[in-house]
Design a protein that fits this description.
The chain is of the alpha+beta class. The chain is built from 3 helices and 6 strands. Helix content is 25%, strand content 33%. The strands form 2 sheets. It has a 4-stranded antiparallel beta sheet. The longest helix is centred in the N-terminal third of the chain and has 17 residues.
Length: 139
């Protein structure tokens, strides 16, 4: 699922660059460890940032970008399901965050934050010596 999610985001970045009339086409991918707050608790997470310097999106397009079947791509090029599926995988299935920042003519940055451990798990020791335990007894 996460492979599909990142592939969708990279395909969107590549498509955005194809629309740009410049030789200076860039996609930047960055990862870092952060804290993700879930139900009042801060948990370790990984932040993956995918940024392109493509055409960017207007605020109106950005507002609709997570709507199923909405696409700005030509017929046959896009289904309008890429970003909605990314949202479902990241937010609904993995309890992470998906943030889209875009400016017309400047490009788009998508930030995906995923918990390192599911929210149902807690860490009893500092992360470097962590032992993860569940809140419920084994079945």
């Amino acid at each position: 699922q996460l492979n599909q999610e990142f592939l969708n985001l990279l395909n969107n970045a590549i498509d955005a660059l194809e629309e740009r009339d410049s030789d200076n086409k860039n996609i930047r991918i960055n990862t870092e460890t952060v804290l993700l707050t879930h139900e009042g608790a801060a948990n370790p997470a990984v932040l993956v940032t995918i940024a392109d310097n493509g055409m960017g999106m207007t605020p109106e397009i950005q507002d609709r970008s997570l709507n199923p079947f909405f696409t700005t791509k030509p017929v046959g090029k896009g289904t309008g399901l890429g970003l909605p599926i990314c949202y479902q995988i990241v937010v609904e299935q993995h309890h992470g965050e998906l943030e889209i920042q875009s400016q017309p003519g400047e490009g788009t940055t998508v930030k995906v934050t995923l918990p390192i451990a599911p929210p149902a798990l807690r860490c009893d020791l500092p992360l470097s010596f962590a032992t993860l335990t569940t809140d419920s007894p084994p079945a």
